[in-house]
Amino acid sequence: MSAPHAVRAAGRARVLACAAVAVLAAGIGLSAGAGSPRAGAALPPGCAQSGDLTIFGLSGARRSVAVQMPACATGAVTVSFHSTAAACAAHGPCGYDGTESWTAAPGGELVLVGVGAPGALRITSGSLFAGGLSALRAQVARTSPTGRTAATCRDVGQPFSGLLSVRPHAGRVTIALGAGQAGHAGAPVAPLLGSQCAGPTDGDVGPALPSVTLPVAVIRAGHATIDLSGTHAYASRDFAGTVTSTLVVSTGQARVSPVGRGGAGRGPRRRNLIEHYLLARLDGRLAVAIAGAGDPRRCRALDACGARGRITVALRGRPGASVYLNADGPARRPAADFLAAVGRGSGDPTAIRVTGGGEAPVAGRVIARLTAPARCADSTVVHAVSLMLSGRRGRMQVALVGAFDGGDPLRTRCPGPGSGTRILAAGTVPLSALAGRSTTVILHGRRFEAGPYSVDAAGTITIALRRRATSVQIYRGPF
Fold this sequence. Notes:
By secondary structure, the protein is mainly beta. The protein has six helices and 26 strands. The strands form three sheets. Strands 1, 2, 5, 6, 9, 10, 11, 12, 15 and 16 form a ten-stranded antiparallel β-sheet that branches. Strands 17, 18, 19, 20, 21, 22, 23, 24, 25 and 26 form a ten-stranded antiparallel β-sheet that branches. The radius of gyration is 24 Å and the shape is globular. Residues 1-41, 49-62, 180-187 and 260-264 have low confidence and may be disordered.
């Protein structure tokens, strides 16, 4: 599995885990066995009629129950925008006019998680994947001070994962695109916007993103229609425009099942040793120099020819983040081999795969100052970053990448490169350093190419991990 796909898969699993264990201030009485789903229209053509989602390992939630149903989104969302006079006065993103849009793709799943006895089930959280992996398309024109079109940026951005906000409260469920008008609590929400063209952030358009509130009984019955269509205006300091949505999510038949720990599965028995770490420290600063390519064949489409600028990324971790390290291999191997693979023994770690990671909430600041092809200064915040851990040849690497749900650490409202799932900074330590309770790793900025942009990150990020617990799972699987 490639690094980008691994990060997306880990992010989606992480969000599901958050949705399953988060307890909101909601008390919703349901009967898990009350009646059969009411009759309703089948899902649209091309949509699966049954879901295939499993929630793994919910510690402390012995009587958790998942209400699952297939979901399918149709329609599109388009955000139109233009620069404001305030942006121009502040030397921000001035003279831009464009759209960002994505079209829903078939497939998805709605999951509501509750706790309690079957006769008095209390819904605590939920998650909705709908229209996943549909590419975001941006088309943005840049005009000169005289009003003449100077250049156009056309980009296909990172795919939108299709993760919508699900918020249960007082017998009802609010489902929203992004954080939505009703606000957000519970599991994180995937970013909606973001390309290498200039444009607004999710926060700029947030008040205009559609949401709908339905009785939980209607959703629980299955075959529900969640209508997120409409047109709403927004205005921020830098951009103003409209959000136009034709998005409609249809759900299929619901099924209720206890939340288990993965089931028996198929394939050979495997052992998975998990080291659970507390992220005791994450802080540092990266000074990122960017340069656009000189070859018009590479840079013209993104209006990046001759681009120059600097992006400063300052990160400070918030408390409570967890990071894990997995040692995975055949169950017939002795436990000492798995401990050796994570630096805690003298066994044989050969052919035991060591990977891990986690998402770290941060108080981060991103400041961009571009001098070409047009002057632009802007600053945004970053709420989370992802860490990827991997063990190889006696060393462990810790890499920092953009978060699945916290935004891109390089993106502002100005045009410029995105990090996507590329490594911004990385560092290594000997696996033997993990033998103690605490481990500190210094991550150094990396160089990489992002489309027509060259990105050179200088600086360091300090990561400190403190081991909290070790657990072992035996499962069946093909790998």
